[in-house]
Amino acid sequence: MEIAGKATKLKLTDIKSPQIRTFWITAIAFFMCFFAWFGIVPFMPAVKKSLGMSGDQANLSVIVAVSGTIFARLLLGKLCDKYGPRLCYTWMLLLGSLPVMGIAFVQTYEQFLFCRLLIGFIGASFVITQVHTSLMFAPNCVGTANATSAGWGNLGGGANRMIMPIIALGVVACGVAEADAWRWSMGVAGVICFLMGLVYYKFTQDTPEGNFKDLKAAGKIKTDAQSKKEGGFLTAAKDYRSWILFLVYAGCFGIELTVYGKMDDYLQAQFSLSRGQAGTLVACFALMNIFARTTGGFLGDKFGIKKGLKGRVQFLMLIMVIEGLILASFSQITYFPLAIVVLILFSLSVQMAEGATFTVVPFINKKCVGSVSGIVGAGGNAGAVLAAWLIREKCKTSHASVDPSQITEASTKAAEAAGISNSFLILGGIIVFAGIATALVRFSAKDEEVAAAATKKAQEEAAALKGALPA
Q1: How far is CA 104 from the centre of its chain?
Q2: Of all residues in the chain, what percent are helix, strand and coil, respectively (each to 5)?
Q3: Which phi and psi angles does 108 have, rounded to 5°?
Q4: Which of 70, 73, 300, 334 pairs as cysteine with 359 (C-beta 3.0–4.6 A)?
């Protein structure tokens, strides 16, 4: 669909404009969803004790939480094309807040697992955020807007490590038993998500021109029947480029989720760090989302302006290959200072690759941006599940190779480190393959021409707007 009035510049202070106001609200909503999605993580030791969970049961709950998001992202991508991102986000926040609050009342492992599955659905917020910013920003800056909103939203997955314990301290100070602090803290996160749903409905709109319902009534965009004939989820699913980008996003966001999920354990086992030291380092790397993902989107836009749609693809391919090579290199390093330097480079490259992916997505099929975004976004979670399975199996094999009569704390740590290291090496190779496969994403001459014209027009509008500002 072609939407008029898209912003040609990401001017963050212009909150009176519907584009920038929506940008801020959708980024904050995404932050809160990721905050709630992983909100239970800092409390897992207390949860395991409270519910009598084993280590394997705790690991399974993590996989379940990520798996549920795969289906949710596919579904919400399709619904965004039909109903618009505003209503989809509103209902997802309102309904998604219920299991976040509900987990505070669980008494058994099965109840906990069910709530984590449902909470995983709010991880689909990423898709709606990307659709909404794609509808609000012009081709010359859509990659930057997508990457920045997603990067800042992703911070919620790291900020909870610091903020949730503070909330727990607050509720304990109010008289709540320390053993129940995790329950009240999750309840607080759920209430905030519910309130965010009301804010989203009140203060955002689907496009710069208005909401889908009104635009359909005015004949400015296709009706549901017309859209079904011209393009929908099946159209997006039949486009091979959607699935290549599915693989690409599995190789960046999916790998980031899994690598940082196991990085605490790896740093402790390989470099003898304490849990606190390892956790702090991982949280710091997550904070790189403030700028790293934006950098990927910005450079993707620049390549697109200079070389067209193929330029966006070329940059994505380049950064994916670099990411894979860095992760493979990191897996073989045993010198701690060098490992930290390489890990910083990995954090930068993986987040840049995530941003670069969604500089390409909006141009695959403008008639079903939501469905394409849903498919690609689901790839991230599918990649996380498969990567987690690989690490689990490699660690099992590594532990099984230790002579039972020689098992000590040191041998157990060495086996854990070896299993994770081998997994990182394999994953690095897979990422390089995904990067090379990106070269198969092609656009027709007509697509290139249309995108070039739209980009040029957006640049001219941005230049005119800049010239009209008072000196």
Answers
A1: 25
A2: 85, 0, 15
A3: -130, 165
A4: 300
- The set of residues, in sequence order, having a beta carbon less than 8 Å from that of 457 and lying 6+ positions away, is 138
Rounded-to-integer distance, Cα 114 and Cα 120, Å: 10
Amino acid (1-letter code) at residue 394: K
Tokens matching residue 285: 């790397």
Residue where the block lists tokens 């390892």:
278
Nearest-angstrom CA–CA distance, 226 and 214: 16
Q: What is the pLDDT of residue 468?
A: 57
Please give the single-letter amino acid code of residue 354.
E
Q: How far apart are CA 146 and CA 150, in angstroms?
A: 6
Helix (H, G, I), strand (E, B) or coil at 466: helix
Among 390, 350, 358, 150, which Cα is nearest to 256's? Answer: 350
Among the listed residues 284, 286, 279, 287, the one whose alpha carbon sits nearest the alpha carbon of residue 263? 279
**79-82: long-range contacts at Cβ-Cβ below 8 A with a sequence spacing of 24 or more?**
79/370, 80/127, 80/128, 80/131, 80/369, 80/370, 80/373, 80/374, 81/227, 81/232, 81/233, 81/368, 81/369, 81/370, 81/371, 82/224, 82/227
Query: Domains in the chain, please, with CATH?
Result: 16-225 (1.20.1250.20), 231-457 (1.20.1250.20)
- Cα gap 306→371, rounded to integer Å: 28
Half-sphere exposure of 442 (CA within 13 A, CB side): 3
